[in-house]
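Two quick folds needed for the group meeting slides. Do the first one here.
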Amino acid sequence: MSKRPESRPPQQASARASWVSNPRVTVVLCVLIVAASVLALIAVFPSADRPGSGKRENVDIDSQGRQHTAASDGAGVNKAEDADKSSAPANRRTTPADPQSLLGVWNRPGETYFLEIRRYGSDGTLEAAYFNPRPIKVAKAAWRREDQSIRIMVELRDVGYPGSTYNLVYHADQDILAGEYFQAATGATYQVEFVRYQPMR
């Protein structure tokens, strides 16, 4: 009797079974299925409607919000700095002018008028002399505080000076006496200025 050839189908079936049960093959198949699904979604949905675009938009909005907040904070800081700058002069303490600074010889620039203040009293009196260039009699002299400055009054009584009066304010920042001179002989009032006299040596 002749031998029958062995049938191979059972071996093929066992081979298929071992191929399917192989975990590596299973992982590869899963990856391919997922990749195919992603490609299908990309092909179906427009770019604006793709899943995840909403998240990107939210990120953009959030970033704009943060930028806007930062800008607002910067504006607030600038406003605060401006407020500090504007309030600085108001908060800065200004030292009142010292009547001791009045003492000395003062001259109207370019002219021969000199005012010498020799002493001051706590009662508001001044000891002063006036020259043009000869001595002119001083009938009355006084000083008083006005805010942070000092105001002085010098009244002249002499020939040609029938009650002529200086009303001056001492400006400590410029070290000058500035104000008005009333010329009693003519009834005219002039704006005048005295600077501290520095004699030539």
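Then this one, please, same format:
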Amino acid sequence: MLDTAVKAEVVFDGEFYGPGVPDPKLPEAIRKSYQPGWGHLGAFKTKLVVHAIQSVESVPADHPTNADLSQQVPILQESALPVYPPIGRAARITGKVVVAVTVSGGKVTGTEVKSGPRLLEGCTVTNLKTWRFADNVNGTFPVTYSYAISGDETDNPTNPRVEMLPSLDVNITARPVKPTVQYGAQSVPATDTLAHESGHADPPKPQ
């Protein structure tokens, strides 16, 4: 069937898993900022496990050939884990980056940044280019990446919390890092200069 139609309507038995829960044995500071996921790099919030296929039938003739992105949100099949750029995080730059994403044959072939902090644009576009959909997905749709700094300050950077919504919008929240203060070395005046400035230098002895 798939050799000729390339698609089929499948009914199956299985299990659907929601977002994972951090291991309670982890330190509380890590559990607050860590959200485990499924799949490659833990990038997915849900997982479907198929145990048995009940039936396979031809797709109805009136079923759309391609996914219409103006009417529905496509199902993301693969993605790298989004990150908070280190420079932006250190400078505590936050905001929303809105991008028009163009997909052709299931792959991202174009990105157009509509708005957002310039320092956060690069990492957003880089991550979007790793997105993969089914081969029949074509079209253009908007995606919003929201970057936020929240929580108590930490001495060292920690993993940000990443959340992908059903709309494919992405929320990235990082904890602030305590600023590092560096003190430069101070020069010490010469001994004769100190004596002269203090007014305690002995007058020269007569010959």
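Slide caption for protein two: The helical segments are 2-5, 28-33, 86-90, 118-128, 191-198.
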